[in-house]
């Protein structure tokens, strides 16, 4: 029995472990505006209910009649919700992803025209909607292939003044780490934005999942074309198996190679032409399989591929390069388009006509530098403390995409670190309430801060003194109270300081007053009770609590000393008086003695020539 079971067990095990090795890719699909998870037929694709958004309003989507999935809800972002809104999806495993966003039209929307807006992922602008997108199957979404390495993806929608951005769905689908590798320039520093993905020949537009494609292929949408136009081609399709299709890293669906467009005898060249944005780099992928029964050997169909006049590939022989008939061949190249059109021409050289199964065109976008994360945190703390209303659109990255920085934030690229830093903040006259948080000192590169004309309360944070580059600080016309922090004296670059029109009190720091008098303009007027520099009252007449205590202590001490002194003086005086009284009582005897001695002296000398005797005798003479 065991002898029979063992081989089966081994087979099962190996099948199981290979299943483990090929785990399913991460997939997150969001049905925007949906209150419940949604499952769409026929593939039972799971769409999570709406989450992760920063604003906007849920609504019903007008039925997209040209494309699946038939999601019924959307989220739209009127300007009152701010110029930029985002979906922030967290806990996304590190990896390579295809991110796709379907646009929508709000049912019974006041605006009759389609909205046009910009889309960014992680701060890099990937797409601007083009008018007419509602009429083209492959224009109703934007798709980008990129690396997500920090666990979070922020997908933002930026108003451009052409209607309210409206989003039907967001998909974050993991793909192979090397998918669409095209050469050394490929990597985490670039994003590939899908411009075109055509499946040529008979068939219908489909998603990879409908084709039974490998999930690691990213569920690509293949837009079917039956002709490149001008009667220069005819579609062809077969039912045969095609080998080498679903291989890593791109896992193309086999079905892709079962149909093709073939040029005609009257027009042997096969030409595909499309409008593109000028001066961009494109990655171009061309798909072939020899499915024509008339071509059976190498050498029977050889052609060149010319892109905008340049020979991209020469002597392409599908059977020779792929190794067989009914075998997939994928070629890729990068190309800089200078004009507004991209033209791909297949020029037959030997034998038969040209044939092609599919075309993919990507725009190569360089990933934008981000804002220094410490400064982003400082701004987020400020956003919270000032309770910034949505109209400011402080979502996503403060500085990028460069076309859509946060309202009131001035940015500068620090070339050394390759990050953006904030060098100016102007939120003057915006009706802001709240307070100024200590964390504002995280904005180390701030040179100008203007919060004038708001209703900001509380103390001026002493941490402002740590922003060494600050040149202009305007906090005028708010409700700042308390005293001016000593630390502001450390701001050696300060040229302008407006603190007028607040409720400040106490002494202006001497360091500040003295220096400002010489080099900078300042205004401390219209405050509660400031003192200490010329132009303001002297601090003596306006005493702080500390001052009062100090003076109280001083006065008590002085009183003590006075009392002590008076006591001493009185005691001394008493002593003197007593001594005089004693002296007075002793005087008659003294007089008598002197008298007698003088009598003796007079008797001896009979002369007053000695002054001392005269003084000595004075009192005696007076008193007698
Ligand atoms: C969306 O449509 C449903 C019915 O399908 C309706 O109950 C709901 O009120 C609509 N919501 C909005 C925002 O129009
Ligand atoms: C794309 O072409 C380059 C050569 O130009 C090649 O190195 C690379 O492997 C190709 N990529 C894929 C996925 O086949
Ligand atoms: C296109 O690529 C070249 C080098 O491959 C690069 O110098 C140039 O900056 C790129 N252009 C754009 C618009 O990215
Ligand atoms: C700050 O903004 C106010 C109001 O907009 C303006 O009057 C003032 O000149 C600005 N302050 C500085 C220092 O530029
Ligand atoms: C400043 O105002 C706040 C209320 O806005 C108050 O709580 C605080 O005590 C005041 N501080 C001073 C020093 O007056
Ligand atoms: C200071 O501000 C007051 C108003 O608060 C204004 O009248 C005065 O002209 C300003 N002084 C200077 C020097 O700017």
UniProtKB/TrEMBL annotation:
It is found in: Membrane. The chain crosses the membrane at residues 543-570. The keyword ATP-binding does not apply. Residues 30-363 form the Malectin-like domain. InterPro entries: Leu-rich_rpt, LRR_dom_sf, LRR_N_plant-typ, Malectin-like_Carb-bd_dom. Residues 373-411 form the Leucine-rich repeat-containing N-terminal plant-type domain. Residues 1-21 form the signal peptide. It comes from the Eukaryota. Keywords: Leucine-rich repeat, Membrane, Repeat, Signal, Transmembrane, Transmembrane helix. Residues 603-624 are annotated as: Disordered. This is Malectin-like domain-containing protein. It is a single-pass membrane protein. GO terms for cellular component: membrane. It comes from Acacia crassicarpa (northern wattle). The lineage of its organism: Eukaryota, Viridiplantae, Streptophyta, Embryophyta, Tracheophyta. Its main location: membrane.
């Amino acid at each position: 029995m065991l002898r029979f079971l063992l081989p089966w067990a081994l087979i099962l095990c190996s099948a199981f472990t290979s299943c483990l090795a090929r785990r399913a890719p991460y997939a997150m699909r969001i049905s925007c505006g949906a209150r419940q998870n949604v499952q769409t037929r026929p593939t039972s694709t799971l769409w999570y209910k709406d989450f992760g958004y920063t604003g906007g309003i849920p609504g019903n989507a007008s039925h997209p009649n040209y494309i699946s999935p038939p999601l019924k809800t959307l989220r739209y972002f009127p300007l009152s919700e701010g110029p930029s809104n985002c979906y922030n999806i967290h806990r996304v495993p590190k990896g390579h992803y295809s991110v796709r966003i379907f646009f929508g039209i709000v049912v019974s929307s006041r605006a009759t025209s389609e909205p046009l807006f910009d889309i960014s992922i992680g701060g890099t602008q990937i797409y601007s909607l083009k008018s007419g997108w509602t009429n083209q199957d492959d224009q109703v979404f934007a798709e980008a292939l990129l690396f997500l390495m920090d666990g979070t993806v922020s997908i933002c929608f930026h108003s451009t003044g052409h209607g309210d951005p409206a989003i039907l769905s967001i998909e974050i689908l993991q793909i192979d780490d090397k998918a669409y590798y095209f050469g050394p320039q490929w990597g985490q520093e670039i994003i590939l934005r899908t411009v075109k993905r055509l499946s040529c020949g008979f068939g219908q537009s489909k998603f990879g999942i409908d084709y039974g494609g490998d999930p690691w292929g990213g569920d690509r949408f293949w837009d079917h074309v039956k002709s490149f136009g001008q009667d220069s081609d005819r579609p062809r399709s077969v039912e045969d198996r095609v080998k080498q299709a679903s291989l890593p890293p791109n896992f193309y669906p086999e079905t892709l190679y079962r149909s093709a467009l073939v040029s005609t005898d009257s027009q042997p060249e096969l030409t595909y032409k499309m409008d593109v944005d000028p001066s961009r780099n494109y990655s171009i992928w061309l798909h072939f399989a020899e499915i024509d029964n008339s071509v059976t050997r190498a050498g029977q169909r050889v052609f060149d591929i010319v892109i905008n006049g340049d020979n991209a590939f020469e002597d392409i022989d599908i059977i020779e390069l792929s190794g067989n008939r009914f075998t997939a061949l994928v070629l890729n190249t990068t190309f800089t388009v200078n004009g507004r059109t991209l033209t791909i021409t297949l020029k037959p050289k030997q034998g038969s006509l040209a044939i092609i199964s599919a075309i993919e065109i990507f725009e190569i976008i360089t990933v934008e530098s981000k804002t220094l994360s410490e400064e982003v945190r400082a701004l987020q703390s400020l956003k919270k403390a000032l309770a910034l209303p949505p109209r400011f659109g402080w979502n996503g990255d403060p500085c990028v995409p460069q076309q859509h920085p946060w309202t009131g934030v001035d940015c500068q690229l620090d070339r050394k670190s390759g990050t953006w830093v904030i060098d100016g903040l102007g939120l003057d006259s915006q009706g802001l309430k709240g307070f100024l948080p200590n964390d504002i000192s995280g904005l180390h590169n701030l040179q100008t801060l203007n919060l004038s004309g708001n209703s900001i309360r509380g103390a001026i944070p002493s941490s402002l003194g740590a922003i060494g580059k600050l040149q202009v600080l305007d906090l005028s016309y708010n409700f700042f109270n308390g005293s001016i922090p000593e630390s502001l004296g450390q701001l050696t670059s300060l040229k302008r300081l407006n603190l007028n029109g607040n409720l400040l009190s106490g002494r202006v720091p001497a360091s500040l007053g003295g220096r400002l008098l010489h080099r900078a303009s300042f205004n401390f007027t219209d405050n509660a009770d400031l003192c200490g520099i010329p132009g303001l009252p002297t601090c003596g007449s306006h005493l702080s609590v500390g001052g009062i205590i100090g003076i109280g202590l001083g006065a008590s001490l002085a009183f003590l000393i006075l009392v002590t002194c008076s006591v001493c003086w009185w005691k001394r005086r008493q002593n003197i008086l007593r001594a005089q009284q004693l002296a007075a009582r002793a005087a008659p005897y003294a007089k008598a003695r002197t008298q007698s001695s003088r009598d003796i002296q007079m008797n001896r000398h009979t002369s007053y020539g000695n002054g001392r005797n005269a003084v000595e005798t004075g009192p005696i003479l007076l008193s007698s």
